[in-house]
Amino acid sequence: MVTSSVPGEGKTTTSLSLAAASAASGARTLLIDCDLRQPSAHKNLGVENEAGLAEFLSGQRNLEELVHVEPRTGLYYILAGKRPPSPTDLLGSLRMRRLLQQLGDAFDLVVLDTPPVLAVSDALLLVRQADTTIFVVRWEKTRRDIASTGVKMVYEAGARLSGIVLTQVDLRRHAQYDYTDSGVYYYRGYKKYYGE
Ligand SMILES: Nc1ncnc2c1ncn2[C@@H]1O[C@H](COP(=O)(O)OP(=O)(O)O)[C@@H](O)[C@H]1O
Ligand SMILES: [Mg+2]
């Protein structure tokens, strides 16, 4: 699953990029928009959010009606659907847990796009069900304390954190800083390798 501290950090963009890259590599890949409050995967996919996870979890629709495929990329997706009265209850339900188990068996990769953890507890209910969590931080925008609080929350909720993705990095400005972070180190290592 992909999450972050606050809205607008790049969760949906990162989820879709990851899912699209996976589908392009030939893996059977499913993206699920688990942000039942502020869904946006449908916008990035260019489709209407008529029905989705919310309708499945509330028993209004069958799964077969809700799994779509992008013909161009072969990416499968389930949209969020109409905002339900109690998103947290639906995401924390046994039905959701069973769904993820079923889909986990049917696909090579399932990517969950989730709401921000400082806003609502929805994503925290999912971390234990995901094999791994990717935490997104928007470079230069997200305050340090906000980012670290979010990471702490997902850890405490039982996440297996596989890494942090810094989004919207201005590479030119970043390179002017005198920080020897891993990106700079990596880049320098390559320069050395090529004998520059
Ligand atoms: N890597 C990026 N480069 C440029 N714009 C981006 C990038 N990632 C996200 N954005 C923009 O930032 C805004 C928020 O991104 P989004 O992925 O919807 O965030 P979240 O899902 O965390 O709320 C969107 O307008 C999106 O187009
Ligand atoms: Mg989003």
CATH-defined superfamily: P-loop containing nucleotide triphosphate hydrolases
* End-to-end CA span: 39 Å
* Coarse shape: globular
Reported by name, the CATH topology is Rossmann fold
Please give the oligomerization state of what you see: single chain
Structural class: alpha/beta
Strand order, sheet with most strands: 3-4-2-5
- Low-pLDDT segments, ≥5 res: none
Number of strands: 7
- Based on the structure given, which CATH architecture is correct? 3-Layer(aba) Sandwich
Largest sheet: 4 strands, mixed
**Cα-based radius of gyration, to the nearest Å:** 18 Å
Plain-language structure description:
With 196 residues, this protein is of the alpha/beta class. The chain has one domain: Rossmann fold, CATH 3.40.50.300. It contains 8 helices and 7 strands, in the order E-H-E-H-H-E-E-H-H-E-E-H-E-H-H. The chain has helices at residues 11-24, 41-45, 53-57, 87-91, 94-106, 144-156, 171-176, 182-193; strands at residues 2-4, 29-33, 68-69, 76-78, 109-113, 133-138, 161-167. 35% of the residues are buried. The mean pLDDT is 93. Magnesium ion binds at residues 11-12, 35, 40, 113.
